[in-house]
Amino acid sequence: MKDTEILIHELKKLLNGGTAHAGLKDALNGIPFGVLGERPYGLPYSIWQLVDHIRIAQWDMFEFSKHGNHISPKWPDEYWAKNPEPKDESEWMGISE
């Protein structure tokens, strides 16, 4: 296998998940909507804020990779949801599905 083929193969494995960690969908499966605003174990962010942070960061990396003129959100303020919980279930479902 050529180096580029190996790289493509490994990237596909990482993007599809199922290697060393659970995919985001599996990790979020079954979390009740009512607990999304809670901060587990005294952490500084709620479950919702952590999940939305992942969404924002992945979007930023994807856009940066697609467009050379992409402007990233301001770090760290624009990488975290301001509210500790989603505004409604449809906002949560947009991320968790």
UniProtKB/TrEMBL annotation:
Top-rank taxon, per record: Bacteria
Record's protein name: DinB family protein
Species this protein is from: Sphingobacterium alkalisoli
